[in-house]
Amino acid sequence: MSHDPSSFLPFVVCCYYLLLYARVTSSGAMLKQELRDKIHTIFYPGLGAPQQQAANYAGDHGVITSEGGHTICDNAPLILHNVRTCAEPPEIHYDCSWYPSSVLFRAAQKAYHAILYQDYAPRTYTINYSKVSVAGGKDVALHRSLVQQAVADAPHKRLVLFGTSKGAATTLVSMAGMPLELRAHIALVILEAPFDAVESLVRDTYGRWLGAGVLQFLTSCTSFQRNQTSPLTAADTFPLDIPVAFVTSEIDTVVPEAHTQPLIAKLHERKHPHLHELRLKHSHHKTLSRTHPEDTARYVNFVNNLYEKYIL
Asked: What total number of domains does the chain contain?
């Protein structure tokens, strides 16, 4: 009795992804414990996201949040090590507002957390839009204070600065003016899906007329300022002695690669000697670290190689 070879294809594909998943979940162990112990990670989240977002990159270790809870994200890869418990971004508020919009927002979070997290249900929060600065003054000031406090608390650790989306833009702008005494403690900067400028991103996302309305809302109702330093301007003064890595995705529609490439091009133009780039193929903006097993394996290996190269 003959069998159609194509009938085995689903089985082969299933085995492939099982092997990939096993590789991803065990890859954190590939990094020597001695090396991991030297790392101190400062994580800065995306727009409207709290520190618990770091659990997407912390594997089974999870993160200790600012309110003392232990957050573990189901199936998260181990990319970041010893993530520092930090103050929340300016716009995040853990309050009990009973405005209908706040109640609906918290209810949606409860449902999302029930699916995404295990062992611990993160506290729900609301967003104070008046304090949203989109990598502006409030974000940069907080980021610099986190670096300063980390250096004071653990002066012998090697700092890894990691930001995603707005957090990546914040990290880039913060680094451009980082004092020399703090820069000496920074071993590596990893920027996941940063944008070149708020104005160009909004215009390309919403179009000319609607984009103008969005920008008017940002300038009128948030802490965003048209004259704040853009990430692209900050790339002009990013330290050339600090290794920096960019992570993007070909299918990211929130911060398309076209809005990250000018930053990379600027650093290439300045002949940055320690510039690295990872382009993922199948991953979405909010889950770049865990959308697709193949991308996740590449992401983990990429970052582990950076650790081995720069965490001395």
From this structure: 1
